[in-house]
Amino acid sequence: MHPMAGHFISEHYVFNPDQETYSYYGPLNLLTWHVGFHNEHHDFPRIPGNKLHKVKEIAPEFYDDLACYKSWSQVIYMYIMDRSVGPFTRMKRKPRKSE
């Protein structure tokens, strides 16, 4: 499997049940137009991908304490080896109750 395929897994598969999505801060962001800055993208979806790294630079207090990945290859390995993670462990939001 190609390491960049790990971005799909890293974005929405649940490795930490307390966090909805994850960012990747490794060097492959240079080849993928910073697609790894996924938390930043969710917070500011209209900022172009090549500028998302600046969001983290400007507001580290919002992103530095979140779980993140530094290797998409590691994410693929974890996905294969961790028996608690699989095709049905994608993050799903619970529907809001009617008010």
TrEMBL record:
Main location: membrane
Domain Fatty acid desaturase: 9-65
Coiled-coil blocks: none
Family matches, as InterPro entries: FA_desaturase_dom (IPR005804)
Domain of life where this protein originates: Eukaryota
Lyase in keyword set: no
GO process annotations (BP): ceramide biosynthetic process
Keywords associated with the record: Oxidoreductase
Subcellular location(s) of the protein: Membrane
One Gene Ontology molecular-function label: sphingolipid delta-4 desaturase activity
Gene Ontology cellular component annotations, sorted alphabetically: membrane
Name listed for the protein in its UniProt record: Fatty acid desaturase domain-containing protein
Native organism: Clitoria ternatea (Butterfly pea)
